[in-house]
Every structure is written in C-alpha cells, then in structure tokens.
Design a protein that fits this description.
Elements (H helix, E strand, L loop, with lengths): L13 E3 L2 E3 L17 E3 L3 E4 L3 E4 L3 E9 L2 E9 L6 E9 L5 E2 L1 H15 L3 H7 L28 E5 L2 E4 L2 E4 L3 E5 L1 H18 L9 H10 L7 H24 L1
Helix pairs in contact: 3-4, 4-5
Bound molecules: zinc ion.
C-alpha cells in the first residue's frame, strides 16, 4: 500500500477540471485535456489524475493567486515518505480560455476545512498503515515499508524517464513507488535505459542531465556501488562524446 498512489476514488466529495500552470499561472501544456475531472477529493485524500494521491494530513497549504488576468492556486504538500516539499499550480479555464476564480475558491475552501480536520490516525487505520503518534508533517512513516509488488522490505523511490525523437521530447510524470531492491531494478532500469538511449536526442537535451540524474538516483540503492558510479557517469560521457563529435565535424 502506497499513500501516494491510492486508487482513483469511485465517489467524490469534490471534483474539478483544472489545468496545471507554472508559478505565474501560465498553462503548461496547451493540449491538456479539459474534458474529464482530473482532481477528485474524498474524505481522506486528494487524487490528481493518474499521477498521485495526497492525504490531507500532508498538505501544508493552499493559496489563491492572481497575476494579470490569471487566477490560479498554489498547493503545497510534504512527501509522506521523504518529508520533501512538493508544489503544484492549478487554474480553471473555460472553453474560451478565460481564467475562472470561482472553482478555485470552492476548491480552496473545501481543502482548508479538510486540512484543518485531517485525521492521520484514521487514515492509517483505514489503509492498514503503520501509525505514528507525532504529527505526520514532522515524522513521515518511512519505517517498516513493504514492497508494493511482493511485500518484502521496501523503500520509497520515485521513477522518472524521458523520451525524445528529433523534434519531440516528453518527460514522464513522477512515479512514486515502494519497492524492494529486486522490483526497484525491474522498474527502474527500463526508465534509466529509455532516458539514456533517447533523452538526449533533439530538444530533450536541455532537460537530459536532470532527468538522467533522477533516473539514476531511483536505482541507486539497488545496484552495486561501481555499477551506480558507471550509470551515473554515462550521461556525462554521452554528452561529452556528442560535444567532441560536434566540434570535430
Ligand atoms: Zn518486491
């Protein structure tokens, strides 16, 4: 059981169609689908389309913002396993592209009440998780984790990959998982290989050093030290090779 990948709720207390924006409220992906609800909230957690679930106990705040004519919301939360802070910016837009304020206010009001009353102990009980007496924000329940695939000892990892072909480049959403060493290799190595083999092609080269570093870090604990250093150095060697090739041409 992974707190960050709880299933899409079948019922909802609140749902909305939001688009992701940057920190200035500008929509990131102009093609983002506006048809399906992509934020669904239930009693214990917020579910964001396909990528993650966020228990209310870990949300640290939501703030409404405005820049020029753009209304958007800034959501901040803490990773339940690592304590690391995350943030996302959302906006609601109508068919003509106008930024709507009302859905954001409703979302913010709904969340603030839930955050205030978040019952972490009830959440642990419902999902059969190890409980902690401390506030979850201070002490993430990162001990005693079980692999999602085989139930042996596991650790929290985040997979990342990118794929590029000449004029097109795409970075996969973060995949938070709890895996044992064996399953970490099974899942993490394909992400690493996909990134190494295609990530540097075309426009992807700008993000390649960052994504390849994340893909390498995801398998750090499950491969031997020399293998890790080799995997870690490979992207830099690849870029150096490209640069030398370019200069010699
Ligand atoms: Zn496993």
């Amino acid at each position: 059981m992974n707190l960050l990948t709880l299933a899409e709720p079948t019922t909802s207390k609140f749902n909305a169609r939001f688009v992701l924006t940057d920190s200035g409220g500008v929509q990131r992906d102009p093609k983002q689908n506006l048809v399906f609800p992509n934020v669904v909230a239930v009693d214990d957690y917020l579910w964001i389309a396909e990528t993650e679930s966020i228990p209310y106990a870990y949300i640290t705040g939501i703030e409404l913002k405005e820049k020029n004519t753009r209304h958007f919301a800034h959501l901040k939360w803490r990773n339940a396993y690592t304590g690391e802070m995350y943030e996302r910016f959302f906006a609601a837009r109508d068919a003509l592209g106008a930024y709507l304020k009302k859905p954001l206010v409703e979302f913010s009001d709904f969340l603030e009440e839930r955050i205030e009353n978040a019952d972490f102990h009830a959440l642990c009980e419902r999902f059969d998780l190890q409980d902690h007496e401390d506030l979850p924000q201070r002490t993430p329940p990162h001990r005693g984790l079980r692999c999602e695939a085989c139930d042996s000892d596991g650790t929290f990892v985040e997979y990342a990959a990118m794929f590029s072909i000449l004029v097109y480049s795409s970075i996969s959403p973060r995949k938070p998982r709890i895996h044992c060493a064996a399953h970490n290799r099974i899942h993490g190595i394909p992400y690493y290989l996909l990134t190494i083999c295609t990530g540097w092609l075309g426009p992807g080269i700008v993000d390649f050093p960052f994504v390849s570093a994340r893909a390498t870090k995801a398998i750090q604990k499950s491969v031997s030290k020399p293998t890790f250093w080799f995997l870690n150095a490979l992207p830099a060697l690849l870029l150096l090779g490209l640069l030398v090739g370019f200069l010699l041409n």
